[in-house]
Amino acid sequence: MSTKVKEINIKENLTLKNIILIGLMIIIAYAPFFRGLYFEKELFPTHIISFILALIWIGSKFKDKNYSLIKSSMDLFGVGVVLMYIVSCIYGVNTRPAIGEALKYVNYFVIYILARDLANTDKKRKYLIDVILLSGIGVSLVGIGSAIGTFSYNGAYVGGRINSTFQYPNALASYLGALFILAIGFLIVEEDKRKKIFYSIASNIYLFTFILTYSRGMWLLLPLVLIIFLALIPNKRKLEVFLYILINSMITLPLSFIFGKSLEASELKSWMIFIGSFIIVSIVAYLISKVEDKLREISFKRIIIALSIIVVMMVGLLTYAIRATVPLKLENTLEKDKWTYVIRNVEKVKQNEEYTLKVEYNGEMKEEKPYIGRIRVYNVDGEGNLEKLKFNYIKDIEKNKADIPFETIDTTEGVRVYFDNYYTDTSVTYKSAKIFNEDNLIKDIKLKYKYIPERIVSRLDSISLKEQSALARVAFYKDAFRIIKDNFIFGTGGGGWNTLYEMYQSYGYNSTQAHNYFLQMWIEIGIIGLLIFIGFILMPIYFLFKRYKDMELNKKVLEVTVLVATISILMHAFMDFDLSLSALAFVLWALVGLLAQTGEDIKFNINLKGKKAYKIIFSIVLVLTLFTTTSFFIANSYAQKAIEANSNKDLNKALDNFSKATKFDPFKPEYKSDLATLYMAKFRSERNNEYLKKSQSLLDETINLAKYNSKFHAIAASNKIRVGKIEEGLKLIDRSVKLKPMKTQSYTQKTDAYLAVYNYYVQKDIKKAKDIIKRAYEVKEDIRNINKTSMRSLDYDEDLLYKLGYIQFFYENLKNREYKITKGYSLDFAYFFDLDINDDGNIDKLHTWNSKNGNIKYEAKEEYLRITNNGDSYGLVYPYGLDLEPDTEYKVIFKARGTVKSNTLRFYVYDSKAKKKAQAVLKDIKLDKDWEHYEVDFKTDSDLKPGTQYLRFQHNGKDGGYVDLEEVLIFKK
Asked: Could you tell me which residues are beta bridge partners of residue 865?
């Protein structure tokens, strides 16, 4: 009887095991199709399913004395990583993201355990890999179909690059690179010819889509990974692997390039190219499979010789393809004018040197156009910024040659040359382009490669010269190490980078990820956690090579395949944030789970009580994570309802739903901040102080949860100031700037707040008003200081410029009472000729213009501007883009001194669009060596439109003296 019961239990367990395995495969299969599970909205339901599956599995093993949750040292490392993330929720700098990351890593460990335990036979391992591969085919088809235009999937094809369901091309490339390796490995061990065709088709689809991601990092990385793959594959299978990779590449590369060019043609043609690619590959793979037994009999020496010959031939062909160039023809056959251009980067230039770009061309123009082509030369500095050096318009069709002189500057790291065409019914063929320094040839620019598509050339060419993405990564890594330095041992907790990077950043970039998985992990769980994770990913290598000799041939191939696919994902994670997309992390941890099976029989002494204790602890963790995830998921649902209710002007319903959201997810500051805003709206409409108290209390809770979030500090500051808690509000706004010092917006918010407080005090308490405006004036020096220390300067912001002008005027006028504002007038514009927010060497909002023989220049002194013009004609210095209103009275006052003769300086209020250009004029200006005020009153015309006016300081030239300007003020009546 007991034997029958035992048999029934085994059958039930096997059935349950298969059901859970199917559940695991479903999770891994659908995960990529929901934006890679990057966002919590899609991730939380997956957490819930995973945790339930794990609870069922562990529950079924409670009475099994032979089952160990922890079977090897590798499992312990995996547990260690998860524990570090769980513990970091206690000390982390941002509790809510820390909890979110802990939930992720519990889920990853669940994937690892289920893959290790459930896919523990050759057949089941193959099923799991096949599901991963089938899912990858689906992902690829969505990307290909979106590129062609057959499918519509948001973000799947953007800017000529396939992103597919991941919505990020580099993550997709990492995913497809790993799947390509898996498909090749399973192709060579599969004996069924029909299944071989499946793997060959799959490998082609992955490679085809991979190429069209245009991910330069993976383009460079995959060949290296494939070399590692070939090195580790058993000798008897090396030739097969190489042939499959070679044939696949030789067919896929040209067809994918042709496909890229065909996208503007018919859908049918594009689909035929794609389908034709994998049909050809499958036929060739089938033919190779017919002789694979003979291939395996070839000696290792002969394989090496054969591979060497093939490699030499490929290098020769590649060299020929790179050297084979043709003239570059750009033409516009459309019915409308449209820019087409090709970019080439040149690094072999020195700073402050004179060069000549010599171009040979010919062109056609069916009817009269301004030009057939244009050549632009830009300076590229150490940060990848562009600055115009020379523009040349090709107008003379008969000449066929153009010499374009240009001079590099002291920031030159290289130059970027654009070859353009624009007008309809014109064409220009650039036959050659060479850069000379005197008579020395510096660079023969390759205009068009005969066999390599331009899209590939431009992607690879941009690697060579300081490009924004590469420079950004350097900044990310530099800033990451600054955070690590302050949180070296235990880290900052999950989400630490996104919470802190704006405090440490070298310039004002936006990046929620550090673009390096290992650095980000170091930031989050410290050196201890990082070393544990490194141990976790190194153990499979140790296990594999410990037992490698005892494995049969196919087992070796499969284990090496899974290992190299894992290595591929991890290697690319060094340069990007792929593993922040949980769908790719699921694949990684599942593969590591399969590799962990190799180490299962290593002795790891755990007594029976210990085994049961691990099961209990893991079950408790799963219950807690399931409860937490479900609670957060419900909170998100209520938050969405609240947002919808608020958009429908239903304040009470919005309040109710946000209140529920904060209860189900009490750690999310966004919910509390939004609820505080709604309570404030309720207070303003009903004047019930209870709502005000609730709003203030929620804001305090928000700040407590988001200690390092500038946005919430600014929101709370505005709220506090509005209700009269002025000093508290100003402290919060000061803190918000310290949390985000490289964002111009921070300073704009601060000036807004201080001006509001100043305007409040100036009528009530002049002493406090003076103190407030003095503190506000310090912003100007803060901007200068931050620009001195940053890798890149702040962005220009006109609103900030205006506000700093107001602040400086109020500060100086309260201090020295220089101006007495005429009754009925208010300050409309204050400009001080000394601010350069973006630190580009030019005074903000200030331009110069010279007539034919004019030579006006300005020099920025510490607190004023000096203007000279030794030319024979006039020139202008002018602040532009004023917002004067029509039919309005204004008073303009500027402060000046100088040594020029009388009537050398003239002043205008000018409008380039109005019927009467000069709205106000001041002539016969007599300057003195001491500062004087000059004033003009005027009324604007009725046809004036705000935004087209400027103040025109005209120096008439023929004078060796100077004009100094300190400030210009506009008052409106």
From this structure: 860, 965
Contact assessment for residue 225 and residue 600, using Cβ atoms and an 8 Å cutoff: no
Whether the CB-CB separation of 570 and 177 falls below 8 Å is answered with no
Residue 636, phi-psi category: left (phi > 0), alpha (psi -120 to 50), beta (remainder): alpha
356 touches 341 (CB < 8 A): no
Structure tokens at 137: 């085919």
Provide the Cα torsion 274, 276, 278, 283; round to 10°: 180
3-class DSSP assignment, residue 335: coil
Give the whole-angstrom CA distance, residue 489 versus residue 744.
Answer: 33
Helices (runs of H) and strands (runs of E) counted in the chain: 27, 24
Distance CA(150)–CA(168), nearest Å, equals 20
Alpha helices in 61-192 (DSSP H): 73-91, 95-118, 122-148, 169-189
**3 state DSSP class of 394:** strand
Rounded Cα distance between 712 and 705, Å, is: 10
Q: What is the pLDDT of residues 37-72, one digit of tens each?
A: 999 999 999 999 999 999 999 999 988 888 889 888
Q: Which residue has the tokens 């004033």?
A: 935
The span from the CA of 225 to the CA of 209, in Å, is 18
3-class SS at 563? helix
DSSP string, 240-304: HHHHHHHHHHHHHHHHHHHHHHHTTS-HHHHHHHHHHHHHHHHHHHHHHHHTHHHHHHS-HHHHH
Closest CA to 459 of 146, 217, 180: 217
From residue 187, give the alpha-carbon distance in Å to each of 95, 202, 561, 599, 825. Answer: 47, 10, 11, 25, 83
What per-residue string of b and e applies to 844-856 under the rule 16 or more CB within 10 Å gives b?
bbbebebbeebeb
Q: How many CB atoms lie within 10 A of CB 49?
A: 17
Q: Which residue, chain included where needed, has tokens 């040659």?
A: 401
Cα 259 to Cα 240: distance, rounded to the nearest angstrom: 28
Q: Are 696 and 736 a contacting pair, CB within 8 Å?
A: no
Instruction: Please state, in angstroms and rounded to a whole number, the distance separating the CA atoms of residues 780 and 292.
Output: 75
Please report, as a single letter, which amino acid is at residue 667: F
Query: How far is 358 from 403, CA to CA, in rounded Å?
Result: 5
Look up residue 58 and give its two tokens: 């562990």
If residue 48 lies in a helix (H) or strand (E), which one and from where to where? Answer: helix 40-60
Could you tell me which residues come within 8 angstroms of residue 309 by beta carbon, excluding any fewer than 6 positions away? Answer: none
Task: Give the H/E segment covering residue 461.
Answer: helix 454-464
Instruction: Tell me what pLDDT residue 1 has.
Output: 44
- The first and second tokens of residue 315, run together, are 């290098």
Alpha carbons within 13 angstroms on the beta-carbon side of residue 130 total 13
- CA-nearest of 148, 186, 150, 155 to 171 is 155
Nearest Cα residue to 21 out of 118, 129, 117: 118
Q: What contacts 10, CB < 8 A, 6 or more positions away? A: none
Question: Averaged in consecutive runs of 10 residues, what is the pLDDT profile of the chain (973 residues)?
Answer: 50 78 97 95 96 95 87 92 97 96 98 96 94 97 95 89 95 97 95 90 96 91 94 89 90 88 82 94 87 72 71 74 83 87 88 92 87 91 81 86 91 90 92 91 88 69 58 84 96 96 90 93 97 94 86 92 97 93 97 86 55 88 97 96 94 95 96 95 91 94 95 94 93 96 94 94 91 95 89 87 94 86 89 88 88 91 92 92 92 95 93 90 92 94 90 93 95 93
In 3D space, the residue among 221, 201, 85, 65 whose CA is nearest the CA of residue 137 turns out to be 201
Q: Which tokens is 39 given? A: 């966002």
Q: What is the pLDDT of residues 854-881, one digit of tens each?
A: 999 999 988 899 999 999 999 999 998 8
Amino acid at 590: A
- 740 burial (CB, 10 Å; 0-12 / 13-18 / 19+) is buried
